Queue: 4 jobs
Job 1
Amino acid sequence: MMEDIKEHFVEYVALLIGMAVFVVLLVIYRFDKDALLIISGVGSAFYVAWGILHYVLRKRLTRTIVYEYVLFGILVFLLLFTVFSI
Amino acid sequence: MPFNLFKEKAQENPAVIKHWRKNPKSIEKYQFVYNFLPNPDKKRRASLISNKAVFIYCSLIVIVTLAFRIIPKFAPGVLGYASNINVKDLLEYTNGKREEVGLSDLKLNSKLTLAAQEKAADMFKDGYWAHVAPDGAEPWDFILAQNYDYIYAGENLAKNFSTSKEVVEAWYKSPSHKSNLLGANYDEVGFAVVNGVLNGYETTLVVQMFGRPREPSMVASVYEEESVLKESVNNSTLEPVKGSQTSALESSSFSPSTVVSTPKVDMTLAAKSISLAFGGFVGSLLAIDMWYSRKKGINKFTGQTFAHIIILIVVIISVWFVLQPGIVL
């Protein structure tokens, strides 16, 4: 795993920056339900796109991996939506 | 456990097949661990974090979220928002925000307080959440009904919040509410914090009414402010009103200072618990998967476990520390 991170350092930095921006936006707009919906949706989509791109660059993308990232993206969105939609 | 692996194991060690024949339950046990650990034979994740399992978790979360919307229609007042909101704190936080930008403090006015209470009672009675009532009554109508002759007036609404600080912070974060909160044209304010059942959910409504009287001499004195607060303290704790609009109306005749709402099921706690339970469960299994695969040298054809764990940690932190219930209008 560490070898993979070292080898694709830029990809992981992009993921961490994306997540940091995601958290900062959630904090700033924590009282705005519409903004939270958009931020969560875009954040989840970013993660799915990152995952797919990660495997495209390695030429190892399979349908199962696409499903996996899409499902994790949906899970992330739903975990947030359950709380901010109440 | 896959049959091939069973065969291989048995070929490796004939004693294994003998043992399994004698103890068929041990085969089940052997198979059971792959619900939690990655399968070295199939080069897959644990069954409980397979794509199929994640799809089931997503479906369950959707079902629970839908249940939160449906239950109040059949059992009003069961679901609700626990709160502990205080008029004194609302006034202090409001004036604190004004002081930060060099504005004068707002005085608590008894007529604006009564107007706010009437508005809150009206929303519970007619089951609406808006500045303009279904019958067309506007905020100014409630203020004028208390014989408060104003030149400027405004209204902020909030519901489902847990604390006074969160209410004022949410108003402050919203540009339109912030302009009321920091309105230089206002001298006085009135608050209503009332519990009741609105659209099936037990909740606490907060109404904040601003005003500047036509006659400057009518601005509330320190004595009036103290008497309004004192009256509030005398009725400091109000038990939650369950399912009755009449009770909500009756309660609004008080000037509650601290309103404590304790519904049967606290929506905030329930939603956060569900989110954390699913997120924590999947995250823990992924962490076990990463550790076990490394230990046993299992190379799986799956997505990046490390990235999944990181995103789930971000979600858990956000759910626990950042996201709070509450809507302002």
Note: The helical segments of chain A are 2-7, 9-28, 33-57, 63-84.
Job 2
Amino acid sequence: MIDSRRTVVFAVFSFCCLLSSARLVRDAPAPGRFKASEIALRSDQRFAALKAALPSRGVIGYIGEPGNSGLADYYLAQYALAPLVLDRSDNHALVIGNFSASSSSQASSHDLHLQRDFGNGLLLFASEGAK
Amino acid sequence: MALTVAVVLCLASGFLLVCLSFSRQRPLFSDLLLKVSLSVGFGLGIFSVFYFLSMLLGMSRLLLVDFAVFALLVVCILLFRTRGRSFINATISSLPRHNAEPAPRSHSLLATAFVVSLCAAVYTAIIRTLAYPHGDGWDAFSIWNLHARFLFLGGSHWRDGFSPLIPWSHPDYPLLLPAAIAHFWSFVGHDTPAVPGIIGLLFTFSTVGLLFSALSILRGRTSAMLGATVLLATPAFIELGTSQYADVPLSFFVLATVALFCLHESRVQEDPSPNSSGLPVLAGLAAGCAAWTKNEGLLFLCTILLARLLTLIRTGPPSLTTIARRFAPMLVTIVPALLLIAYFKRSIAPPGDLFSDGTTALHKLTDPARYWAIARWYGKSFLRFGHWLVIPGTLLLVAFYFAAGKTVRKRDLNQADLGLRASILALGLTLAGYFAVYLITPYDIYWHLRFSLPRLFLQLWPSTIFVFFLSLVEDKSGAPTCGADAPGRGL
């Protein structure tokens, strides 16, 4: 009696667990159809050319989308350019601009001299008056 | 080649450290799954600490450091482990006892569910690791892998990574994960994302292995399969474990601390010899590693010490000698870990973001609306945090407790269950500590709860499963044992 009760309890228990295991498998990315890593696209790959033009260490300025909306882009840039420290400020001798291709004109509101346009909204500025 | 050597050194160092702490009377390869599971975490912990120390001291010959640590552990094993019984006899006598009776149907059913959930978890974890090589989510690239890059690529400027100019990267978070990643990168020669991915996989499945093996030793294989199946079938646990976040590594060390204390109490009951301080030393190290993994681990370290003190006091007023005897072994490893963390926090990391303004925090503590908001989120997250389908795992455990009815009952906790009592209390106190932090958070409380509470619950989930199944026992009313391997001990 107790054994059959236990069997029922364990069967229901196992079924409930396996439902969630099924969700786990269902939600997993389909093998063979992986998209290119978005993080790699928006960090390492996007900043590869710019990185070669920057000093390997120290602190440089960073401008991009203002506020929290630009936070992810800032951290992806920081991740790509480490061990260089990016300060979200234009008060540096070297400043990088990270915009979407369509909004790179926003950079003109800063008092900076464009040194090089890497395309796709990625810009390198020099700021003579900076500390 | 260098990477292979590094992997072997890491795991072997972890294994030797674990073996050093287990009873000298037991053979080196007894409780193998438990030791291997623990070795992964402790090996990575060793790698992390020695990488950090070598950065501090400016030592460049990392391989030499690793070999020195390994050799030291070998010497310690040779010195401190006496030759006990002959290996073969000892191994056979320490194997689990099997009933001659065939396993009941419920046991086979459970074994099938366990294997299926294990396969599903392994498949998903590997697929996710391949699909998201840089992790899945914000914390992987903005905190852990970013800090690892600064350590590895920064050279003499590695401290720049903990600059307050990068505030949202939590520069005050400790370094177990980043330094372990950087250690392996230094052998590979570049910052390949495969390293954090594999470390994530290792922590995820060693947590499962640890849960299974500890429950198997203490309560039998049925309890072990029940517990491991619940954890493997928690989608958020597998997803988070492969997202390259530090929450699953932290959950590993919390579980290791709890399980090692419970194993110690159990073995003291079997053999109260004075030379049984190895497991508390290792449990203290696990708590220290938890604190070296994330700030929440520091809270857990405090709560486990407090919980053990309170449970000791509850059994009767302890003398100072008793307290010293109980606490000295774990403090042997906790104190150095705390010194390391204190040095990091004082000399390298900027102040944390949660405790900056005392007056405002005090004002928030007196606001009842915040208590109510957090309590409601705790209630909601209790049912939602695992990303389960249809039946939440938390409810499943509650339902299991009642539905099992006559087949299981709550154990009467006695003196021998000091470890279990202290563990339950520590987990409860940790949850209370999280609650207190939400009360004073400088961020929007709903935003903070939304983005962190499910992960905080997951940090304690493996340990909760462990203490749940540890606190249940087979009814002795003549029912046949369900755990075919350990009559009268488990479910």
Note: Strands of chain B lie at 408-410, 472-474.
Job 3
Amino acid sequence: MSSIIDVRGLTKSFNEITAVDDLSFTINERKVYGFLGQNGAGKSTTIRMLLSLIRPSSGNIRIFGLDLATHRKEILQRTGAIVEKPDLYKYLTAIENLNCFAVMSGLKYTRNELLKKLERVGLSDRADSKIKTYSQGMKQRLGIAVALVHDPDLIILDEPMNGLDPQGIADVRNLINHLSKDLGKTVFISSHLLSEMEQVADSLVIIHRGKKIAEGTMHELLNPEETKIEIEAGSATELAQQLRQARWGDKIVAIHDNKIIMQLKKSDVPLVIQHLAETKATIYSITNKNSLEDYFLSVTSN
Amino acid sequence: MLSLLKIELFKIFKRPRTYIAFAVIAVIIILIQIALKFGGEEYVGLMLSGMSGSFEEIPAKDILNGYLVCFIILNLLLIHVPILVALVAGDAIAGEANMGTLRLIAAKPFSRVKLLTVKFIASVFYTLILLVWVAVLALFVSIAVFGVNWLGVPRELQFNVLEADDVMWRYALAFCFAAIGLICVAALAFMLSVFSDNSIGPIVATVCVIIVFTILTQLQIPFYDESVKPYLFTTHMLGWKGFFYVKGIEGETVKGSIENLPAILKSAAILIVYTAVFLGIGFWYFKRKDILS
């Protein structure tokens, strides 16, 4: 598997403030990479440097094996992006906007071809409406269509799910999966919606205050050997007592609101469930709490 | 390059704001034409009253014709058209930054130099279309409404009299010169546009520069005549009038002559140098600019 993006020692300072600090990571082809960080962590600055909108203070970016500083045009020909809000020309229609950006990418499409591209994001029926009449979600979907208009190999999406309703988020998620799994595209995506990232990303890069703090596959980062479960019981105190009398007392990490949170080896989970069944305690639910959100908060709070 | 230019022009002429300048020019010119149609003879009388010579013997209707009306309109208007040029040129980059589209187009596979070149050519195209619009309304409509006759060009206390068949080529050259002046203004607004992320800023800044420079150009203070005025581009933008100033021998004007062609060429060269400097600064800065909008 060859690397699509290779970032080494990337640093960007604005006067006294270092927005991105000695950042290095590698993105391999045909995968979906989540790029996570809190507000102000340096995600957008990094994405802007990947698109040559901002000059790095130091460091090196190679995309498709080419140096961005010297092969900008070749790289951008194969890259599509949304950076922050997908602002487009409000006084033009969707199809006119799409045509503008297609021409800017050196392509000429017929109206039917453009309509097909709009159909992919569910906007073909509003192709001739001006953007100023669009909802935020429709603008977001059109932004994705603009990013994909020249059929790029690498797609960089900065917060693509912002402003979308649940159906819109599901549509974008399906589109990202389709791009990666069916069309073999590489997708680099930043988002605050951690539950969504958990569903679409194969790997993650997490940055905090401009520095990388974690990188790896979702499988590696969420540590499948260890897991957290949350048990909702009729009486958490009584159940905790029963668990302590068995050998599970030291696995309890928190008790609140009739809920017990336990940290266990994955292989111990069936044993705990079996024990709970034998005690005949009142159990309403058992939930896996080993989420990306927990992991993200744990690494960024450190 | 050509396809990018087409897209740029498409974007400019799809914006309602673009047509404000055309509407403003039409309203002003038509108002002046209406005023001169109904009160023109009185206006000409006032104009002649301060002149030396026996102009009172000439019927005002002979003096008031399409050529003179056009000259009057250009005198009043060519100092204000730059403000309208700034509406589009000042918006070229800053407007994209303001809309949030600059980051999209700057991430497309062409260089920033190419992007700026296309945008400036589109601004120049708009400027020239605007000037053609002025020419059509001020010259051809005036000719249609007022007819043609000899042109009396007012110069301080005297008139240069140009025969009717000695005028049209002068207007052609005057409009070409005005184009150089307006392109210079477009370059100034364009340069300021590169520095800003909000289109109001460069438009207002350009208008302020033009107003201040025009006031300085028109100030009749000897100190400024040699120390400041020769270096202001607004001084040289008035060079178009030079095509209507003719050589005279024994009180008669020499047909086909231009009184001081080198001065006109010098003004044109200075405007071109200004344009090059404005563009040079704009390109230099934009190539290095971090696009944060």
Note: Chain B has one domain: 2-288.
Job 4
Amino acid sequence: MTLPSPGPLLQMSGMTKRYPGCLANDAVNLTVERNQIHALLGENGAGKSTLVKMIYGVTKPDAGTITWDGQVVNIANPHQAQRLGIGMVFQHFSLFETLTVSENIALGLASAKERVGLRERILRISTEYGLPLEPDRVVHDLSVGERQRIEIVRCLLQNPKLLIMDEPTSVLTPHEAQALFATLRRLAAEGCSILYISHKLEEVRALCSVATIMRQGRNVASCRPADKTVRELAEIMIAADLSAPTPRPARAAEARPRLVLDRLTVRSSHQFGTDLKDISLSVAGGEILGIAGIAGNGQSELMDALSGEVLAGRPETILLDGQPAGHLGPRERRLAGACFIPEERNGHGAVTTMTLAENALLSGFGQGGLVRFGLIDVGRTIAFAERIIRNFDVRTSGVQAEARSLSGGNLQKFLVGREVLQDPGVLIINQPTWGVDAGAALAIHEAIMVLARQGAAVLVISQDLDEVFVLADQVAVIAGGRLSAPVPTRQVTIEDMGRLMGGTAHVEV
Amino acid sequence: MLKFEPRGAESQFWRYGAPVLALLLTGVTAGLIFAVMGRPPGRTVYTLLVAPLLQQDGLEALVVKAAPLILMGVGLSLAYRANVWNIGTDGQFTLGAICGGGVALALPDAPAWGLYPAMMLAGALGGMASGGLVAWLRVRFNASEILTSLMFAYITQYLLVWLVTGPWRDPMGFGFPQTALFSDAAQAPRLIAETNVHLGIALAPLTAVALWVMLEKTLLGFQFRVLGQAARAARFAGFRETRLIWVAMLISGGLAGLAGLLEVTGTLGQLTTTLSPGYGFTAIIVAFLGRLSPLGVVPAGLLLALTYLGGDAAQMNLGLPNAITGIFQGILLFYLLGCDILLNNRLRWTRRGRMAA
């Protein structure tokens, strides 16, 4: 152990990074002291990830200086960051499912020398820091929480002085999250500072001593989170320019159901997927039903079953405007008035290597005479794509631009526009604003609410609780492939939701 | 060091530049091989690629060779765009020739107006049956079409050998493994009298145009392209993968069968143990050289046809083994696939060692 030199551990000033079409970081400053758990707060797209990628050497800054341990450094790659003593646990793990815990950790080590006595070191660290792990278990049998522990242990083996955690609790149950906090506090006390990225304000208040808050690529505030209420923190993070959605008039009680699921049960075709069990729900015209839940609890399986990419067996399991649709494929369900927006934009909702005009055709080919006698009407297809671009403010060079040239937010606006402009009676959308900037998210929320106001039934599947609360009239929680009974949004609290999310997850086998 | 950097968007220049570069590299590599073999590289390449065209009837020989390659290459370009990897067009070609030729042998006295269309139909159906079997195995059992279509190519070849040495052997043929000559009514109609320029030479470019329209302008073609580029997006759109696999295999198989029938009735006039000098495999190169576009296949087919003529010429004039054609084609395919990296990447010279501190 070297004696800590005076001054902060990490000081970043004037960090700037520009991507084509967006200024991800604009002269951002960040100072992390020793023994500190430091929160980096901000919405999706606020620039948190860009900033930490520059610390970890993944992204090269356009301008700015990084001072580490009193020395100005130029961090060229993650390997160098690790040598300096910087570890990072990413939101998405990089583990080989078919290998054991210790094999996975061994793969991440630079040299064979470091592998000597690895098993014992893993066991020592895992007991020392309350990170229970069995080195010989195969990864695909492990829960998400256990997998995260592998990643943390992998970092701790390098004796880091700074551990960066990117939204670590987004995949954890509340109980797992509490255990993680205990570990992090212990690490901080023993001299490893933590940079904790999150947009979960309660957590940050409980765990972190300092918070740096970012918005649209800039620093907006630095504070002691314990001194602020959740509401105050949220206001700083979201800022006043996000107007609250206009409250909608309560829908007529007798509105007829347009989407009904009756005990939908689907075995997942994927080896580690989640089976759907007895899912029943009903969404009336003009109503938005939000389905919350932690990732991997059956959301994508539910989306596939609803879109018709996986058939539900019994026709009566799914009713679209009263018509049995469980046996219909996506094309027939669209003809029955349903539209779908999947979570994954690239290669699922859109073909990235095709133009926007062709992508407009992808789900719109049944609409408005885009295809006649099997021939594509190029003029009308282009007109349709142009209408989407105009109405949804999609920033692009034009209809001939390839989908991959668009930013995530713009492509998502295009895909939402493509479905909404088909005037569906039922809209089903999974993760409407995942990885999308705040402005695009607002536009997408607005479009969903307008569509509902016009009489469509909308089902929103989202892991973002705030989004569910903003949009939905009714909410339900999916956990372990089962759906809780939908309840009116006004009557539930965040705590209720948290309990439902953690409750049955990971119990089912 | 040299490094590839992603471009972000496909380069329009390299879209057409890559095949030309591949061709140049093939010429250089082939020249090196000839030099190692102790032949003058320049003259050998000239004999291989230029001299055949200057001969009498050179152009006629070229288009006759190119017609089957184009017909098959067009079908393959469609299938490959949908990620359906039909490798066995050689077998579909042979089965088409067997079925069409069988009709000719069964009805030696039928009039031309009825016989030849029936033979064309039988040829196309034969190829479709062979391709359809591959599609069925893929759709029903998820068996890789790469393997099954290739295996069927061998099975069909042995079926042909059995037929021409057994039940279909010409009783007047002095025991040679070949069938009787087809009747005059069963010869491919000639576009130009007294030449080998037969119906297939007109059909090949027409088919290319028709399938180009299908691929680029119709919803069916759009479905093929989406399936090939993003299978999950095709499912999202509701395009049925199994149906598209069937259609791709039936079209590529049917065109190969038709090519086989045209070839035996246009040049050979009977069935023998070797109908195809590897046309089906060369058609794979044709499809890739043509950038998997039905229109691009036309010049690509002409070029590969030239390598056949050049191989013959090299054998006769320079005493080189006939394998030279295969070597040349193999090198060309290698460079074609390799040069495609330039479509989405650019070469950059970066200095190493500066970055790591």
Note: Residues 244-337+424-509 of chain A form a domain with the Rossmann fold fold (CATH 3.40.50.300).
